[in-house]
Write a structure and sequence with these properties.
- By secondary structure, the protein is mainly beta.
- The chain has a domain of about 100 residues: Sandwich (lipopolysaccharide transport protein A fold), CATH 2.60.450.
- It has two helices and twelve strands, in the order αββββββββββββα.
- Strands 1, 2, 3, 4, 5, 6, 7, 8, 9, 10, 11 and 12 form a twelve-stranded antiparallel sheet that branches.
Length: about 220
């Protein structure tokens, strides 16, 4: 009887919820982790961005504080009319102090002008409104392709510089069939211009021819 009571007391004492040691280094763990996220982000009171990601981790004790997207990121940027003006994708992304983006692995930026940027590393400074990278980058626009290193551009991907660059520009034909046909038509319909007759500068000798109406001697009576 006493043994049974002792067993019951021990069983009740082991029913505490499991616990782990306190985390002393908070910067090694995220304060919040979300899965399957689709979130709108405002800037100066306007909705400007949409983030779609499979996993979103927030670290509040790192220096600087950062958001981590270890399984990839799709970011859409809107204009003031709430129309999409740019897409950004990456295999991994970090957002430092909610200002500086570090995009890694198959990074692509596409805008409504038809410009496509590809690289393995790209930084996006939202305070200075600039993109920059120090690795191989490739940018394609509707009229040319440029590749090189040390890339820097504005947020619209319209004004940029690339060091150690190599570019491809399409060169149109100088003479097309339509142009050649036009030249032939002009030649066939061309009318000859009149030739001006220039008088000779050599003085001619005047020859007097007697008139039949004059009397002999050449004087009137």
């Amino acid at each position: 009887m006493c043994a049974l009571a002792s067993f019951a007391f021990t069983a009740c004492g082991d029913s505490k919820p499991p616990s782990a040691n306190a985390v002393k280094q908070r910067d090694s763990s995220s304060v919040m982790t979300s899965y399957g996220v689709s979130k709108l982000i405002s800037d100066s009171g306007l909705i400007r961005y949409k983030v779609i990601t499979e996993e979103w981790r927030i670290y509040d004790r790192t220096n600087p504080p950062r958001h981590s997207f270890p399984k990839g990121l799709l970011l859409e940027r809107f204009n003031q009319q709430f129309h999409i003006e740019m897409f950004v994708t990456a295999d991994t992304a970090y957002w430092y102090n909610q200002n500086l983006w570090e995009l890694r692995g198959r990074v692509r930026v596409w805008n409504m002008d038809g410009t496509i940027f590809d690289s393995q590393l790209l930084y996006w400074d939202m305070s200075t409104h600039e993109f920059y990278s120090n690795v191989y980058s490739h940018i394609k626009t509707p009229d040319k392709e440029v590749e090189g290193t040390s890339f820097r551009s504005d947020e619209q991907m319209r004004h940029y510089t690339i060091n150690n660059s190599r570019a491809v520009f399409p060169i149109p034909d100088e003479t097309t069939d339509d142009t050649a046909d036009s030249i032939k038509t002009i030649e066939q319909n061309e009318t000859p211009q009149p030739t001006a007759v220039v008088p000779s500068r050599t003085p001619q000798k005047a020859t007097a021819t007697p008139s039949k109406d004059l009397p002999p001697g050449g004087h009137f009576k």
